Amino acid sequence: MRRLITIFAPIALLAALAAATATAAEPAVGQARGFAPGQVVVKFEGGRAGRALKLAPGIGVRRAARALRDNPRVAYAQPNHIATASATTPPPDYTLPDDPGTIGGASDAAAVVAGWALKQWNFLAYEGSATARLPLSPGGIDAVGAWRNLAAAGRPGAEGVTVAVLDTGVAYRNQGRRFRRSPDFAAGQFVKGHDFVDGDRLPLDENGHGTHIAGTIAEKTDNGVGLTGVAYRAKLMPVRVLDRQGAGDAVTIAKGIRYAVRRRAQVINMSFNFDCGKRVKVVDEALREAYERGVVTVASVGNLGSESCVSAPATGPRVIGVGGTTEGGCLGDYSLAGKKVDLLAPGGGDPVPGCASVSARPVFQVTLRGRSTREFGIPGRYVGTSMAAAHVSGGAALVLASGVLGRQRQKARVKAMTKRLRSTARDLGLPRAQQGGGLLDLDRATTRG
Fold this sequence. Notes:
Shape: globular
Oligomer: single chain
Low-confidence stretches: 1-32, 90-100, 105-113
Structural class: alpha/beta
Order of helices and strands: EHEEHEHHEEHEEHEEHEEEEEHHHH
């Protein structure tokens, strides 16, 4: 349980507010997705970071924050804003007709050449032919070409790179009778993580979103099970900052970012968003620390219907903001536009009206089946910029391992990564506010010269 500091009588300012708010009590959460009740995030002048202060009963969050901001010793005071996972559920079940949502075993994988490619349109080449055995996909990011480049560089699958997955947790290990590790993960591919929701060392997934994201980034390959991940030999650091409903507060998320930085993650994936227009200062502080330490941070820009504009943490300092595209290489009808869109990557789902292709499959990956924490499948419901961000995080791991950035120190490395991914992306002919640099192209991003 997160430690909070209770405000007692010595803080006369807040004590006085109790009477002022007694007849105008606030609801449990604010408008839209809101904020944690009974808490204010405060940073005092000279302090390292903001912290959550627990309010006495009867003191309203917004009024307390406004009163604290009038104190010259207070650098900032805000509600403890809530973020939610950035996946959207499509109306139909897009699972392939010949895919009952089960995980293929070794015999199934041997039945076809590169059977994963039947589902993972998102990883295929979009032109030319990396190999005659694989089809092309107009919405592909050519991970196949990148895998070839990384093998030639002696770092197959981004071997040696660590990606932190800040999410609902990951099904990364067995625990008692309740939790099972996803069969397409290996125990040895995880480094130590943390659960900042329950306050323990077991960041196990109770939702499925985090396992899906982790799978897209670095699920195993050549094991005769399920599918594959972009950076299939990278290490994963599970950091639970979202609860079983896919929601998490700003202070918890900031702690998760700092944990990943301290533990030497090289890439941090954040497939969640705060409400439109919120500048979440405690999270921005943590993101700035990540940038100063040379950690690449990647975030979803948000989904239309859940958000109404590109939202934090994608708007944070030096964060790579990612929008979503479809199997047909179109902009997803959920993908938001704004100046903080840096790149596009596969998110699946329906295209915007007027696109030539109507291909609308989701992003397939092995994850929890329903609400079970013991059963796994390949569901057809994962669509959105959450999925898109995971492709860029896996891609960033490949770029780091490839050596194409050369020797860069800390902040220069983050800048070079953003420039590399944007400059090698595929132009879809869309306005910059919709596509940023364009659709992620991992073959080009990892090719020397």
